[in-house]
C-alpha cells in the first residue's frame, strides 16, 4: 500500500492529521513564509510568536505540521525566564540546542553552525538530545555595548547602580533594560532598533539562515517572543532572497499587527510595562520595515550583498532557495 504524504511533502507520523496547517489557538501570529515565485506547493517554512504557551491538547495539532526544527530567535536565558508550559520541550518532542555564535567576528561563507545541547529543566549540557529547537541570541555583547555607548553620561553613571541592584536581587536585568529602553531605544524608535539588529546581530541572522540550508531542518518554524520584530526581519530577508517584491514583503510584515490584536494587552504588559518601551514598539507599521530595508539598499546595494557581507555566501543563498522550492528561473529581483 502506498505511503500517504501531507501537502508539505512530509510523511505523516502518529501526530500528523492535517492536510493543511490548522489555526492553533495559542500560537499567535502564525503563518507560512512563502513567495509567489515558488515552484512547489510544499509548506516548508512558517513563522509565529513563541510556542511556549501551547496547551496540552494543541501539541498534536502543532506536531501535525511536520515541523522538524524550531529556529527560536531568543537566548537560552530569555527562553528559560518567560512563563509557559513549554510542552514541546518538556515532553521531549524537541531537544533544546543553543547556537554557538562566533566571537568578535562574522561567520565565513560556507562555515557550519555549531550548537550545544541543553537539558530544558537543568540547563546542563547533554549529548543525546535531538537538536530540533535551536536558540539564537540576537542581543550579543556588540549590541549591548552599542546601546550603552549611545546613552547620556548621567544614564551611564546611574546604570552602574542599577546593574548592581539587578545582580543583587537577581531580576534578570529588569531595571537595567528599562533604563536603557527609556533613554536610548525610545528616542530612536522601532525602525532604528531594526537597523541596530541588521548591523549588530549579523551573526545571529546568519546562523538562522544557515540552518535553512540543511534539508533535514525542513519544514521549519521561525519564532521569537511575539513573531513580529526579530522574526519579522529574518522572514523579510528570506522573502526578498526568494525574489518577493519589497511591497509584498512589507505587506506581509504588517499582518503581524492584526494577528497580535487578540493579545494586545499581553503585548502592552511585555513591551511597555516590562521594558519601559514606547507603545509604538507594539505595532507593525509599514514605514518601520521600509526604513530598515532602505538602510540595506543604501549601504549594501542589495539583500544579496548584505547577506554575503555577514557570511551567508551566494552558494548558500542559492541552496536556501532550492531547499524552499524556488528555482533560479522563477525568481525576479526588484
TrEMBL record:
Molecular-function GO terms, alphabetical: phosphoprotein phosphatase activity
Domain of life (superkingdom): Eukaryota
One Pfam family matching this protein: Y_phosphatase3
Keywords (A to Z) from UniProt: Membrane, Transmembrane, Transmembrane helix
Record bears the keyword Transmembrane: yes
Transmembrane intervals: 151-169
UniProt protein name: Tyrosine-protein phosphatase
Organism: Mizuhopecten yessoensis (Japanese scallop)
